[in-house]
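To close the section, here is one more complete example, presented without commentary so you can practise reading it yourself. The ligand is adenosine monophosphate.
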Amino acid sequence: MDCIFCMIRDGKIPSNKVFENDYVLAFNDVNPQAPVHILVIPKIHVESCDKINAENADYVKEIFLAIPQIAAKAGLDKGYRVITNCGEHGCQSVKHLHFHIIGGTQLAEKMC
Ligand code: AMP
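Output:
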């Protein structure tokens, strides 16, 4: 499959990995929008937030269990933002579900 995040998961494209377990992989975003910008993905291909269902929900649960650990490791003790872009209006550019962890500075209040 022609999915860049599946290729990262499979080691076919290099990434700067910050966390990994059986369900979840996290790596630094190649184009960071803040001092800390980490992407957290499920190790199975799920296209977007819209495709979360009972069969793949365990992966999503594991992502949210991993996020506090990833944030702590990244030193985000003052807080951070977790975002997932979904579909065209959400400006999703990579069609593999991912959650952005953004922080390391005071973020803007505005979300859109
Ligand atoms: P989104 O626009 O929500 O789909 O986010 C996709 C994110 O993936 C963007 O922030 C990109 O900078 C990031 N990205 C794309 N290719 C790579 C890559 N090879 N390694 C790390 N991050 C990437």
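Once you have examined the tokens, check your reading against these statements. Residues 4, 13, 15, 27, 29-31, 39, 85, 91-94 surround adenosine monophosphate (CB under 6 Å). The longest helix spans residues 57-73.
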